[in-house]
Here is the input.
Amino acid sequence: MIRLFDILAEQRIVDAIARGELDNLPGAGQPLVFDDDPLLSPEQRMLNRILKNAGFAPQAVLLRKEIADLRRQLDAAPEGAARDALRRELALALLRLAESG
Here is the structure.
């Protein structure tokens, strides 16, 4: 069911495009960056955004960044003791993430 508000909003967007009001906006032509986890509830995403804007990050976000960094290091590491240490560190980070969520 289409709501009246949706129709009005869409019409205003179309009118603004026709008038050129949306031309030359900052970031035009650049890919969108989605920092939010789509599996989180809208409420949790909003809370995470508020914390991020205030300079804080939830523990799970920090762990995900750490895990991504460890995976990049692991991909670049040659076989040997250093690679094994990275695997152990990655496994521990994955466990901490599982326990936090």
In short: The radius of gyration is 21 Å. The mean pLDDT is 87. The CA atoms of residues 63 and 96 lie 8 Å apart.
